[in-house]
Every structure is written in structure tokens, then in C-alpha cells.
């Protein structure tokens, strides 16, 4: 079965009307005076600052976290290329939510700017592609963008190992879409929000709008050909579903969004 046919079958599920809410959090900022590492020349984009978001998905009585921001040690730190004003955990606490309340945690990938608060969620079920788990837990030291200490407490946590696309709750409302290339098991998230409509969270499929326009890939991607195939797959999904697509690191986009404690549904 082709991956595109498999994706079509995945999206043929009749949607139950789950109560689904998405909350967006500011979990830091990164600045890059030189963007050449992202496969772009400095003339191809004027953007030099990226936001680092975290997300909370409420599905009926279940809570799921998607991406966990910069390392908590960066909170309040000045200097370097990062800024992180209020930790993800403190923002959750202000909403009356503790890490132990979270049932599922999934990362678009295991780079340090997506797993900063990962260890706090060791009680949650980890949703991870098998290829990413091998890369992160067995060979994390081989990739300088992985920081195994940030997610070491998840080594023995309950794990749902994925090998491709997955319908998280079985009703079509939250789907993890396998999109390798940036890392071996990179994935994006599809949400079927009742009022907002279908939405796709990009992970690091793209970092900049120019990355999408030019189909550029960072020099630190693990597989360029897989990256391009994943771009094709996700773009086809956007077209077939009419989904809104959020490039997660897009600071300009973030400035238009309603951040926590507001939510989308």
C-alpha cells in the first residue's frame, strides 16, 4: 500500500464530535544573525527570530502536550541566542494544570528546543516514532541537537511506539503524521477543530516561510530526500483537507495568535 493511500484511509474515519481544544504557549525565542544553517541565504529571508511554542490539546477528559519548549534552565537567562520569559510548567500551573494531569506527550522531534520540559511529563504516555526513539534514546549523543539529559526521565515511561501515521484517540480528531527527514522520526500534528477547522502543526518541517516557498532544508537534517518527500506528503494533506498550516517557529504568525489561557476549538 502506498503511503498516500494509507494516508487517505487514515482520513476516511467518520469524525465523532469530541470536545477538542488547543492552547498555544510561548516557550521561548531563538535568534539567528546568520540563517545559512537552515539552507537559506541571508538574502532569502529577513527573519532572524524564531518563536518556540508549546501546545496543550484537550480531548474530552484527556490532556496531551505537543512539544515542550526550550530547556527550563533557559528561563530568565539573558545572553546567547535564546530568551525564555516564563516556563511552560508555570504557564500550565497558572491554568491549574500540573504535569501529572497530562495523559499523553508527543514531540514533533527530540531536538532540544522541543523537549525542554520533557522530563516533567514522565507519567504521561509518550507517542513517538520507532525511528525517533532509537535515534534519541539509543544514539542521542551522536546528534549534537539532541540533549538526552532533557528527556532521560522518559526512558522508562509508558511508550506508544509508532511506525507511521497514527490516530491518537481513534475518532479522527487528533492525528500524528509521520514526516521524517529533519530527524529520523519527525512528525507533524493534524487537528480537526470543530469551529476553527482542520489545522496542521508543522514541527520543524519548515522553520521559515521562505523554507516552504523554496523547499529548503537545513544542513543538519538527517535525510534531505526524506525531508522533501515529507514536504510533498504534508502539502498534499493540506490541499486535500483544506487545513490551515502553522509553521510553528514563525514569530510573525505567533503575534497573530491567541496565546494561553485562550484556546482554539
UniProtKB/TrEMBL annotation:
<keyword id="KW-0378">Hydrolase</keyword>
<keyword id="KW-0862">Zinc</keyword>
<feature type="domain" description="Metallo-beta-lactamase">
    <location>
        <begin position="51"/>
        <end position="249"/>
    </location>
</feature>
<comment type="similarity">
    <text>Belongs to the metallo-beta-lactamase superfamily.</text>
</comment>
<dbReference type="InterPro" id="IPR036866">
    <property type="entry name" value="RibonucZ/Hydroxyglut_hydro"/>
</dbReference>
<dbReference type="GO" id="GO:0046872">
    <property type="term" value="F:metal ion binding"/>
</dbReference>
<dbReference type="InterPro" id="IPR051013">
    <property type="entry name" value="MBL_superfamily_lactonases"/>
</dbReference>
<dbReference type="Pfam" id="PF00753">
    <property type="entry name" value="Lactamase_B"/>
</dbReference>
<dbReference type="GO" id="GO:0016787">
    <property type="term" value="F:hydrolase activity"/>
</dbReference>
<keyword id="KW-0732">Signal</keyword>
<keyword id="KW-0479">Metal-binding</keyword>
<feature type="signal peptide">
    <location>
        <begin position="1"/>
        <end position="18"/>
    </location>
</feature>
<dbReference type="InterPro" id="IPR001279">
    <property type="entry name" value="Metallo-B-lactamas"/>
</dbReference>
<protein>
    <recommendedName>
        <fullName>Metallo-beta-lactamase domain-containing protein</fullName>
    </recommendedName>
</protein>
Amino acid at each position: 500500500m502506498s503511503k498516500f493511500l494509507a494516508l487517505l484511509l487514515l482520513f476516511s474515519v467518520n469524525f465523532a464530535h469530541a470536545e477538542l481544544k488547543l492552547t498555544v504557549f510561548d516557550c521561548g525565542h531563538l535568534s539567528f544573525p546568520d540563517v545559512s544553517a537552515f539552507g537559506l541565504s541571508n538574502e532569502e529571508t529577513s527573519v532572524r527570530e524564531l518563536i518556540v511554542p508549546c501546545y496543550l490539546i484537550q480531548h474530552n477528559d484527556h490532556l496531551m502536550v505537543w512539544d515542550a519548549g526550550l530547556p527550563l534552565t533557559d528561563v530568565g537567562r539573558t545572553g546567547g541566542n535564546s530568551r525564555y520569559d516564563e516556563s511552560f510548567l508555570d504557564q500550565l500551573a497558572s491554568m491549574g494544570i500540573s504535569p501529572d494531569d497530562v495523559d499523553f506527550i508527543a514531540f514533533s522531534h527530540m531536538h532540544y528546543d522541543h523537549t525542554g520540559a520533557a522530563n516533567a511529563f514522565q507519567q504521561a504516555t509518550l507517542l513517538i516514532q520507532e525511528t525517533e526513539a532509537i535515534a534519541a534514546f539509543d544514539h542521542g549523543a551522536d546528534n549534537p541537537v539532541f540533549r538526552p539529559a532533557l528527556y532521560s526521565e522518559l526512558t522508562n515511561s509508558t511508550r506508544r511506539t509508532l511506525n507511521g501515521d497514527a490516530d491518537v484517540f481513534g475518532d479522527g480528531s487528533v492525528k500524528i503524521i509521520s514526516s521524517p527527514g529533519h530527524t529520523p522520526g519527525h512528525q507533524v500534528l493534524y487537528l480537526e477543530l470543530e469551529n476553527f477547522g482542520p489545522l496542521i502543526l508543522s514541527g520543524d518541517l519548515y522553520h521559515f516561510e521562505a523554507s516552504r516557498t523554496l523547499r529548503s532544508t537545513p544542513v543538519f537534517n538527517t535525510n534531505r530526500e526524506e525531508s522533501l518527500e515529507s514536504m510533498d506528503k504534508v502539502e498534499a494533506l493540506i490541499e486535500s483537507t483544506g487545513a490551515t498550516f502553522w509553521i510553528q517557529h514563525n514569530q510573525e504568525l505567533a503575534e497573530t495568535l491567541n496565546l494561553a489561557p485562550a484556546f482554539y476549538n
